[in-house]
Each structure stands twice: as C-alpha cells, then as structure tokens.
Amino acid sequence: MTEKIGFIGAGNMAGAIINGLLRQGVCPADHLAVYDHHSTHYARFEERGVCGVETVRQLVKFADIIFLSVKPQNYDEVLQNICPFAEGKIIVSIAAGISSAYIKERLGDAAKIALAMPNTPLLLGEGATALCQCSPLTDVEYAKVKAVFAAGGVVQDLPEEQMAAVISVSGSSPAYVYLFAKAVIAGAVEQGIDVAVAKALIAQTLIGSAKMLTDSGIEPDELIRMVSSKGGTTIAALDALYAHGFEQAVIDGMRQCTRRAKELGK
C-alpha cells in the first residue's frame, strides 16, 4: 500500500491495527504516524519506526487515510481540529455509535468516510471487523481501508443501519467469551482442578469450538447435539444453563449493548 496512514489516538486499537500492517507487510513504518495528547504513548510506536507527531495538523497533512481512534466523547474536539485540513482525506471512524451523518455535520457532505467496528483480538491478528462504506467514498478507496483491517483478521461488510447492532455481535462480545471462560475456570477450581490447567483447557476448547463453527459447515444446534447424549453429562449441564436463562441473558446483554451504542452516537 502506497498511501500514508495516520492515527489520532495512540491507544490499544491503533496499536493493534499498526501491528497488523507491519506484520503483514501491508504498509512500511515510514508511511505510518500517530498523534495523541499524551506523547508518552509514542515510545512503543517509535521503536518500530512509526512517527509520533506533535500536532493534529501535522498528522492530517501527513496522512491520506486518517483513523479516528479516540473515544466517542472526544469526537467533537477531534473533528473540529481536523476540519480545516481534512479535504480529500479518507476518514475512518472506529468509535461506537458514531454515524456518518454526525461526521459530515462537522466535516461537510464531501467527507469520505468509512465506519469500522473492530475488536480486541485484532491485537493478535485474529480480529473481526465490521466495515461500512459511506458515500462518496469510492470502491477503490474503500478497498484500501478494507485491506488495513484484513491485515489483522476477518472483515465483513455491513450497511450503516446495522453498525450499532454489530457492536453487540463482535465488538463487545469478546468480553462475553471471557466472562464465560472465567465462570468455567471458577467452576473447575471449585472442584479441585488447578487454575492454570483449567485456563489452558477452556482456552483450547474455545479455540477448537470456534474452528468447528467456521470450518465444519455445521450449524450451532447440530454442533450442540454432537456433544450431547440423552441422559448424559452435557445434557445435565445444558439443562442447568437453560434453567438459569443463559440464552436470554446473552440476548438481553446484546440489546443493552446496542442501546448504549445508539446513546453514544447522539
């Protein structure tokens, strides 16, 4: 990729995206730059050859593609700061609940925008990113943004009206998985199993189960049946989970996640 890429906000997600780009050789380090209020964050980037700049203006002038990797509550300030220099730039938002209309109100209708919802497994190159192309961003420009996220995992195209809801599916869902793992580990320790052994076993079980979902071509209900036998141990465990409303608790959590995402975008 020949385009230069800049990140406003030098947090974990910016670091994850940059790691993917460098690991996959998609973009050389001298085509990357970061800006953050806290220049102390720059050291981990600069040791890999990525420049930390002193001002937003420097960042925007440097970059062809600009990632807004700040919290939603900081968007007004950031968009105000980049507006005088942003013409013709590709703007990529990775914040929950921020709409293209919100950005265009502050940068103008000609702003070229992509909305993204990555997740933290991007840190290890195993991310899942939902991505939305917003007019007037061209297909060629969108493909360049898509290539950035593809360097760190799987990318799925979505219409903008689904971007708030997808946060509950992939953006926030790693936390659901970790909570489940935490509960399994606690249950194992209660029964006398060493915590390190339990962690290793549930982690590999989650990895293997995920591969069954992606690679076997078998639907979740059938995968559940494959593990279960009438009157067996798995059925006993599932009955307890169903009795405590496991599925509905997950669905309710997803609804609350989406509700909050929409609130953040107002």
Could you please describe the fold and organization of this structure?
- This protein is of the alpha/beta class and 266 residues long.
- The protein has two domains: 5-158, Rossmann fold (3-Layer(aba) Sandwich), CATH 3.40.50.720; 173-264, Orthogonal Bundle (ProC C-terminal domain-like fold), CATH 1.10.3730.
- 52% of the residues lie in helices and 14% in strands.
- The protein is built from twelve helices and eight strands.
- It has helices spanning 12-23, 43-46, 56-62, 75-82, 100-107, 139-150, 163-171, 173-190, 195-215, 220-227, 233-243, 246-264, and strands spanning 5-8, 32-35, 51-52, 65-68, 90-93, 112-117, 127-134, 153-157.
- It has an eight-stranded mixed beta sheet, sandwiched between helices.
- α5 links the parallel β5 and β6 (112-117).
- The radius of gyration is 21 Å and the shape is elongated.
Could you state the order of secondary-structure elements as H and E?
A: EHEHEHEHEHEEHEHHHHHH
> For the record, what CATH class of the largest domain applies?
Alpha Beta
For the largest beta sheet, what order do the strands appear in spatially? Answer: 3-2-1-4-5-6-7-8
User: Mind telling me which CATH architecture of the largest domain this is?
Assistant: 3-Layer(aba) Sandwich
Helix content: 40-55%
By DSSP (H or I, 4+ residues per run), the number of helices equals 12
Distance between the termini: 35 Å
The major pleated sheet works out as: 8 strands, mixed
How large is the radius of gyration? Answer: 21 Å
Give me the count of strands.
8
